[in-house]
Amino acid sequence: MSAPDPDGLLAEQLLRLTRRLHRIQKRHLEPVGITPAQSRLLRTVAHYGDAPPRMADLAARLEVVPRAVTTLVDGLEAAGRVRRVPDPSNRRVIRIELTDAGRTTLRELRSARRAAAEDILAPLTVEQREVLGGLLTALAGPVPESGC
Q: Which pTM does this prediction carry?
């Protein structure tokens, strides 16, 4: 029998944690009426502030194909959370901006994300959370200041 592979075990733990994070996040987002992918797109649109992004900007930021962004925007637009607007300097370019309902949803999302984080982090002490934060920063980089 071969010796345990510590990196393989760690990778498996990370995959299990990722699946758990998705399940918990999805559970907390359901009452808001939004999927995790729509949540991410909505937060990304908000990140741009007063300069609404183009679909291509969103695809690049989210690291997905443009068609995926179109599908997400269609769903959010149907729910009244975003709208497509022509670019003032080039009417052939379409930009995506938040609606008032989208801004309300963002506030609800922040509460849902905090509740999900509390569920996920509940087993950890304050010190363990600080260590985990440092480790995650080493692996994924610092959290953006805007909190998007």
A: 0.78
Q: Do the beta carbons of residue 35 and residue 29 sit within 8 Å?
A: yes
Q: What is the DSSP string of 29-86?
A: HGGGT--HHHHHHHHHHHHTTTSPPBHHHHHHHHTS-HHHHHHHHHHHHHTTSEEEEE
Compute how many other C-beta atoms are within 10 angstroms of the C-beta atom of residue 53: 19
Q: In 10 A of CB 95, how many CB atoms?
A: 20
Each residue of 102-133: pLDDT tens digit?
A: 999 999 999 998 999 999 999 999 999 999 99
Q: Which of 38, 79, 41 is nearest to 58 (CA)?
A: 41
